[in-house]
Amino acid sequence: MKTGIDLKDYAARLGVSFKDASLLQRALTHRSYLNEHPDEKLEDNERLEFLGDAVLDFIAAEWLYERFPEMGEGNLTRLRAGLVRNETLASYASAIGLNEMLLLGKGEEESGGRNRLRNLGGAFEALAGALYLDQGIDAVRQFAKPWFVPVLDEMLREQSDKDAKSRLQEWSQATLNLTPTYRTVRIVGPDHAREFTLEVLIGDRVYGVGTGRNKQAAAQAAAHDALKAIGGSEPS
After folding, report:
1. What does the alpha-carbon distance between residue 152 and residue 159 come to, in Å, rounded to a whole number?
2. To 10 degrees, what angle do helices 46-67 and 73-84 make?
3. Secondary structure of 32-59 in HEC code, one letter for each residue
4. Cα end-to-end distance, the chain, whole Å
5. Average pLDDT per block of 10 residues along the chain, 236 residues long
6. Distance CA 219, CA 224 (A)
């Protein structure tokens, strides 16, 4: 591996072992690296990212379904979204040092790509996809669930599973007599892994910014950011 960090050693740090180490290598290879090193016999992690996204969605949904047998579909959907949204996956990735392991092109590296949320979240998905192909879904369950537990606990404590857009609208109309509006400020990424960034405005002031895999998720993230900014003024 070009970073000089041993793949087997890194897998051991994660508590996993790969039968096919090339899958782990692929999960750690960003497209920008191959763009600058076209002669190397490597594949980028985008297809694994696509697969891992679906696997993590399923595992999160299955876990929540079993854990909350009386919970309705809407609340289960919101909780699942919180467990696997890009920002959350990026936090998992940072915690296991994926940012240090990524193979990046020089330009991507210099522009802050090693700590870019989209790269980190995608790398975690790619790692899940690689583990699924190497060992099956039970291995991904065992690996992913410990990361889900504290995030779920925090969401339940903060009631962040409640629709942030609705909460912000309640506060804005009651306090300012205005309705929040949302505008798209950036769209990046390949077609299968787009990342949208939206701002939420109340009047002419930007109250929050959020990113997500679609505009709805980005708007929810922006509303959540706005609620954090107004702090104790938000409705309970």
Report:
1. 10
2. 140
3. HHHHHCCCCCCCCCHHHHHHHHHHHHHH
4. 51
5. 65 87 93 85 92 97 95 88 93 91 89 90 96 96 94 78 80 93 93 89 95 89 91 50
6. 9
Q: What share of the chain is helix, strand, coil (3-state, %, to 5)?
A: 65, 10, 25
Q: Which amino acid is at 229?
A: A
Quick one: how far is CA 81 from the chain centroid?
9
Q: Under 8 Å CB-to-CB from 24, ≥6 apart: which residues? A: 7, 10, 11, 18, 127, 130, 134
**What residues are annotated to the active site?**
53, 125
pLDDT at 162: 60
pTM exceeds cut of 0.70: no
DSSP-assigned letter for residue 115 = G
Distance (Å, rounded) from C-alpha 92 to C-alpha 127? 11
What structural domains does the chain harbor?
A: 7-158 (1.10.1520.10), 164-233 (3.30.160.20)
